[in-house]
Structure formats: C-alpha cells, structure tokens
Amino acid sequence: MPNDLGTKNAIIIGAGIAGLAAAIRLQLQGFIVNVYEQNSYPGGKLSDFKLGEYSFDAGPSLFTQPENIVELFDLAGENIQEYFSYIQMPVSCNYFYDDGTVVNAYSDNIALANELQLKLNEPAKNTLQFLQQSAALYNNIGTLFLTNSLHKISTLFNRAIIKAIQHTRFKFLFQSMNRLHEKQFQSAKTVQLFNRYATYNGSNPFKAPAMLTMIPHLEHNLGSFYPKGGMISITNALYRLALKKGVLFNFNKKVNNIIHKSNKVIGVIVDQENLYADLVVSNMDVYFTYKYLLNNQRLAQKVLKQERSSSAYIFYWGIKKTFSQLSLHNIFFTKDYLTEFNHLFNTGKCFTDPTVYINITAKCEPGIQAPEGKENWFVMVNAPANNGQNWDEYGAQYKKAILDKLSKLLGENIQHLIEEEQVLTPITIEQKTASYMGALYGTSSNSKMAAFMRHPNFNNQLKGLYFVGGSVHPGGGIPLCLNSAKIMADIVQKDFKK
Ligand SMILES: Cc1cc2nc3c(=O)[nH]c(=O)nc-3n(C[C@H](O)[C@H](O)[C@H](O)COP(=O)(O)OP(=O)(O)OC[C@H]3O[C@@H](n4cnc5c(N)ncnc54)[C@H](O)[C@@H]3O)c2cc1C
Q: What DSSP assignment string belongs to 97-111?
C-alpha cells in the first residue's frame, strides 16, 4: 500500500542472488523495499562456510559475465571497485580423461584449438569454427531470449525477436547438442568436452537442443573469472550495495503466505503477521510459491510439466597437500557420458562412474582460502533430482567412485589426505534454499520449447505478483538469475507507470 508520502512498498521473498538484484533495482526505481529471508544470511545457494581452517563456497563456483554485476553498480552510481574485484582466468578448466589424457582449456581460443589438436587430434579449424558459431548464436539469438520477457505480447511482436526466430536454423532446434557436436568434431573426446556445457544449466546434452551450443561462448569467447575472496564476494558485494541504497533486510523470517484480494496481491504473512505491499516478488522456487504460499495446487502442478534440472552431490574436503596438476576448475570425465546422463534424467539412480568436478579456490588465493601447503576441494558429481532415493547409500557409492578415480588419475591415495569433510546432498540443497527436488537450476533445458515453457516473471491472474530466480525465465545460473531481476524490474516499471 502507498505510504503517507505516496511511495510504494515492495516485498521480496528470498535473498538469493536474484532477490538481491531485484531489491536493488526496485529500490532504485523508488520503492521502499523489504526483503524477507528464511535463513540468517543472504545469498541462498551463493553462500559460504568454514570447515576448520578451510573456506568453502557452498554452491556456484564458475563466474562468467561479470558485466551483469557491473551494470548494477553503474545503475546505482557506485564505484564497484570499492565493493568487488575479479580476475580473468588464463585456463578455464583442466580436463582429465580416463586413459590419462589431460587437456588444458586455455581461455585464448587459438591456444585452445592448438591444445585440442595436440592432445585430442582435433583439427584446430573445427574448434575455431565452433567457437565462432557459438558466438553468433549467442549474439543473434541468445541475448534477445535471455534479456526479454518471452511472455509479453509486446516482446513477441518485437522486430528483433521475430527476426531472431526466423533466423533460428532447424539444425539448432531439431537435433541434440551431442548430435551437432558429433558432426562438427572429429574426436569423441572433443565431443565429450563440449557436451559438458549442457550441465551448465542442469540439462542433458543427448536430449537438449543444439541451441545450447551457445554456452561455450560465455566461457571461451567472453572468459571465465575469479572473484577475489571467492564466489561469496558476489553475494557480499550485492548485499552491501542493497544496504547502501536503503533496502531493508529481515533475516530468519520465513514468508508463510502471499495475501491477495480481488485478483490483486496485497502482501504476505510472516510469523502470523500481515505485511502489506503494493507488489510482491518471489525469489522462492516458483513451484513452492504456488504450492505453499498461494495454496494453488493446480498452478504448482503446471510448473512441473517442465522437467526439473539435475541436482548434485557435493563433498567439501580439506586436503593436506597441494596438487600442481590441478587448477581452479578441474573435470575428471566418466568413460560413458551417455549412461551417466541416462542415470541423471531417466532412471534417477546413482551412476558409479560419474564425471567429477573439483573446484579449488586456494589455487587463486593460497594461504587464504586454505592453509599454506593445503587445498580446499569442492568435489561435485551431478546427481538426479531428489525423488526419495536413498542418498546415504548413494553418497557412499559416489564417494568410493570419486576416490577410486582421483587416486588413479592423480597417483595418490586421496582418502588419506582428507582432513576435513562436509557433504551437501539433493535433500539438503532443497532444505537450505527451498529448491524443489534439490534442482540446481530450476527446470532443465532438455526440451526445444524450454525457453517458452519456463514460468514468466509475473502472474497474469494475480496483479502485483512477480517472480525472479533460477526457477523462472530465463533460467538458472548466476547470469540468468541476474537477468531475471532486470526483466522483472522493467515489467514493474511499465506496470506501475500505468
Ligand atoms: C552446488 C551448486 C553449484 C552451482 N554451480 C553454479 C556455477 O558454477 N555457476 C552458476 O552460475 N550457477 C551455479 N549454480 C546455480 C546458481 O547457484 C543458482 O542458479 C542461483 O544461485 C540461484 O539463485 P536464486 O536467486 O534463484 O535462488 P536461491 O539461491 O535458491 O535463493 C532463494 C532464497 O529464497 C529463500 N527462501 C525460499 N523460500 C522462502 C520463504 N518462504 N521465505 C523467505 N525466504 C525464502 C531461500 O532461503 C534462499 O535464500 C549452482 C548451484 C548449486 C546448488
């Protein structure tokens, strides 16, 4: 409700990265913004913790497109350097194959093409052409779809969008990512390397449309980055910016209901108290928003028509040794990617030769992220979304498989080097961030219509209700969550001008 001064109030449910960006944008538009967060800290999945002397980012580890963060500081008229700094990584990832082949994925495209030619016998021109195609896809189609609402008539009649749809070639829609890679690359190992990018939004490269081949553009043409202080610095920077601009935060406050009257949202209920607002933005998983906050089972079920993204099983290990062959991002591939994805999306079972990802921020900040001579290993395998599987049993199987693989390929008994351990499972991901089935990225992009099926950033029937975050348009991952806040804020601006 407008207050005495005529200023309007906005309530944001959740202080995830999208909730923080939404709060900043609405505050800058002149709203009085209150954020209600069930946890005692901001960031949602983008949070951190300490384990003995080791620091860990709890969730995301790959940082691309810093320009989305820069834009928020520019908009707020603040100097980003006072809040946040980052460096570009010369090698985006180290890849280890089961036969002992190691590939350094250099950020420089020519160096990468030469490396793939040398190690995988992949003609350099294939890699260079592929990365050019990836850039064109992103620039001509991706940016339009990822920065506009696809659910407003005005967008669908936008000339640029119509042109982009007309230029979308069948080969990017009607064949899978894997199929396109098989046609473009000579080496099965190169195919596997680029197939991996489907997991960047929790999808299956054997099913997801080749449109997703735009993802490598972000890492290889635009670069991957390391935020000083780890990924948590992104949360901290946006939280401080929001505070500076006057956003009000209410931690340990779980929103229980959204209140509406005559098809208009008028506020929320927290701790049995009615809190009124002119608009409510949910950063909570859209499925849970409908199910619990609006008690609308029909709309909740509708959301589930789209397949959930994959989840993850993570081991945070304090390792009392350093490994020179590892870098910030490392991948140890399975021998059988097709079967791994079958387990993730079809059988929902544990696969005992999983692809293993290790992130070590101590590589960028030794002695800070981990004690001198030691490393903080964030060890993750993709896991199926939670459907009631026995995660204790799966966890034991994953751990054995990971230790066997790493001990073999690194030539060390890794078990003996672990001095601290904590785990995160699909169940605890769901509990900590209210993400249905522990999905990392909301819904998958396995269908060619995924972009259009994802939930809009508003609700047509309930005026004043908006959505941001990984479970709604344009999808999961930090850059897209930040885009969701921008799209939502643009819609609010138009709605409230009316
Ligand atoms: C293990 C892991 C690895 C990942 N790796 C990457 C990566 O490398 N790069 C990348 O870009 N992305 C990655 N992601 C995805 C990325 O973390 C997410 O897409 C993004 O952080 C989601 O942000 P969000 O704002 O949508 O929501 P969340 O981070 O899920 O935040 C939602 C917030 O809402 C709060 N909330 C929910 N319900 C209520 C309620 N009723 N009342 C009050 N508060 C409530 C929650 O407590 C939470 O704080 C990863 C995710 C995970 C879990």
A: -TTS-EEEEESSHHH
Q: Which atom of ligand 1 is nearest to the CA of 39?
A: 47
pLDDT tens-place string over residues 419-459:
999 999 999 999 999 999 999 988 888 887 777 788 999 99
pLDDT, one tens digit per residue, over 52-106 is 999 999 999 999 999 999 999 999 999 999 999 999 999 999 999 999 999 999 9
pLDDT at 423 (0 to 100): 98
Nearest CA to ligand 1 atom 18: 477
Contacts of 46 (CB under 8 A, 6+ apart): 16, 17, 57, 58, 59, 60, 231, 232, 234, 235, 478
Ligand 1 lined by 17 (C-beta under 6 Å): yes
- Would you tell me how many other CB atoms lie within 10 Å of the CB of residue 159? 7
**Tokens linked to 44:** 């949602």
What is the CATH code for 9-46+64-86+229-306+443-497?
Answer: 3.50.50.60
Question: What are the tens digits of pLDDT across the range 132-158?
Answer: 999 999 998 888 888 888 777 666 667
